Amino acid sequence: FQLQASGGGLVQPGGSLRLSCAASGFFLDYYAIGWFRQAPGKEREWVSCISSSDSSSTYYADSVKGRFTISRDNAKSTVYLQMNSLNAEDTAVYYCARLAYGLGFRESEYDYWGQGTQVTVSS
To answer: Residue 61: what are its φ and ψ, rounded to 5°?
Structure first.
């Protein structure tokens, strides 16, 4: 099983990026996927998650609600995180992970993690 996060980079404040999380080795349809991020010197925090294809419900941390959108394309085995109106506080390494159990708000509920992609918001 593998998850590969990509799409990070350097963007100016107010800009946008779209992160991708490509899954291999399992059927993405059956699993909820979450995004976390870890800023320098801080603990990793939950950002967003999307439930399995049964409902594809989406959830967001208050800090990103209204700016980030999570979606999935099961045909491509990929989950996306569209990030708009980025600011310096969004600078972090972003990770995607597969939910093993629970509601998806805690790291311990996830079993497989991608390697992370760096997002830097700076002028």
So the answer is: -70, 150
